[in-house]
Design a protein that fits this description.
By secondary structure, the protein is of the alpha+beta class. It contains nine helices and 16 strands. The chain is about 15% helix and about 50% strand. It has a 14-stranded antiparallel barrel with strand order 1-2-3-4-5-6-7-8-9-12-13-14-15-16, surrounded by five helices. Strands 10-11 form a two-stranded antiparallel ribbon. The protein is globular and about 80 Å long.
């Protein structure tokens, strides 16, 4: 074979070099789990854990997203565009990375006659890294006796609950089955296939500051007819990849999973317009600060241990102020959205030991365009109007992002996805 050693070295070159899955030190198994999977979040530096969104892939990053999503939405599904993640700078053209995710949720307020919104959601996702096709040979010579597809993947079952009583709270869990196939079983090189399981816990809180002020005071905040400002604060926390070590045949050579702590803040402000039965965001701006810490510490004798809590994350300096901590990965970004139709994002990722990388991206959302057309029509929300029905119940989103390392020799990585959202139906 381009033997198992070659495959392992290829994976290390891709995933442990200055790329998307840069870690803060110490090697782990399956580092592909550290790659920010959501193109929408990648555009703002990879801050998906801290920014409420309807993107299905965001649940992979923070299962608390599923809890918030289910408060106001019924279903979403997202998938990468074919071969949208480009790793050609590593001269491995057969390599590809992809994510597929879908979620369903239901709000029980009406069904249970609750005085507040309470919802639950269930989701499935798959994150896969295809390392390409390798030749299998034997010790007798270079004659190819077979082919082997090297790959790693994670299948995830997500559950989440949401609560809305002045503030919105979403919490959830991802239950992962992780498989790493880096060598065919039974070759002379020996097996290099590992399996493990892991759990993520996620929490996402959104505080509509001006909305709460308006509700408590009973005063309208309109600055013009049907136009109201908003100010939202959100915070996300994740403890990811908690599970047993992964082995490739020899239990004595077990490697830890990339257990990670994530903590972030986001602030968003803008203007909302009431068009018929629908709130339409005319414009918004969001700022995100997020810190990620790999909790695995390698000792000089080759053993390892896990840090507890938030690890080396400092809430005030790393999250509130967004400063660069030499011990954690700092993610910062901003997003400008116009009419819920077009969004532009930029961000940065500062990882210990590497120069900061930059990110950028954009989104185009059909739902925002439908709201605009409906708003300028002569009869907004007219009974029986297909336009009113479509903008109330469906949104189709296209997300694109680019990750650019500081070194131009490494090239950039792009990712694109499509996301469908279904909402507004009651049963």
């Amino acid at each position: 074979m381009k033997n198992s050693t070659v495959v392992l070295l290829a994976a290390a070159a891709i995933l442990l070099s200055p790329a998307l899955s840069r870690s803060q030190g110490g090697s782990t198994a399956v580092p592909f789990l550290l790659i920010p999977p959501a193109p929408e979040g990648l555009g703002i530096g990879g801050g998906s854990a801290s920014l409420p969104t309807t993107d299905a892939i965001a649940t992979v990053v923070n299962p608390g997203q599923l809890g918030l999503f289910s408060l106001t939405n019924l279903f979403n599904a997202s998938t990468y565009a074919p071969r949208s993640s480009s790793f050609l700078q590593y001269k491995l053209p057969d390599m590809s990375y992809g994510v597929t995710a879908l979620n369903a949720g239901y709000n029980f307020r009406s069904l249970l006659s609750l005085p507040f919104d309470f919802s639950a959601g269930l989701g499935y996702s798959r994150v896969s890294l295809d390392l390409g096709t390798f030749n299998v040979t034997n010790s007798g010579g270079p004659t190819v006796i077979g082919k082997f597809e090297a790959k790693e993947y994670s299948e995830n079952l997500s559950v989440g609950v949401g609560l809305d009583y002045y503030i919105q709270i979403g919490l959830g869990f991802n239950f992962k089955r992780i498989v790493s196939e880096l060598s065919p079983i039974g070759t002379e090189q020996g097996a290099a296939t590992g399996k493990s399981s892991a759990t993520d816990f996620g929490l996402l809180v959104n505080v509509p500051v001006l909305g709460i002020a308006s509700n408590l005071s009973g005063a309208s905040l309109e600055i013009a007819p049907q136009i109201t400002p908003f100010l939202d604060l959100s915070s996300g926390y994740v403890k990811a990849n908690v599970g047993p070590e992964m082995t490739y045949g020899d239990p004595a050579q077990a490697d830890p999973l990339p257990r990670t702590a994530v903590l972030g803040l986001s602030i968003g402000t803008g203007l909302t317009m009431k068009t018929g039965k629908t709130d339409w965001q005319l414009a918004s701006f969001r700022l995100v600060h997020q810190a990620d810490d790999l909790l695995v510490t390698r000792n000089s004798d080759g053993t390892f241990n896990y840090q507890s809590g938030l690890g080396d994350i400092q809430f005030w300096n790393d999250v509130v102020l967004g400063k660069c901590n030499p011990l954690v990965t700092s993610r910062r970004g901003w997003q400008l959205q116009v009419g819920e139709f077009f969004s532009w994002r930029e961000g940065s990722v500062a990882t210990p030991g590497y120069s900061p990388a930059t990110t950028s991206g954009y989104s185009i959302c059909l739902g925002g365009l439908l709201k605009f057309i409906n708003a300028i029509s002569q009869s907004p929300d007219a009974d029986g109007s297909w336009l009113a029905f479509a903008k109330e119940h469906f949104d189709l989103q296209f997300h694109s992002a680019k990750y650019t390392p500081a070194s131009s020799a490494e090239g950039s990585t792009t990712a694109q996805s499509l996301n469908l959202v279904v909402k507004g139906f009651s049963f």
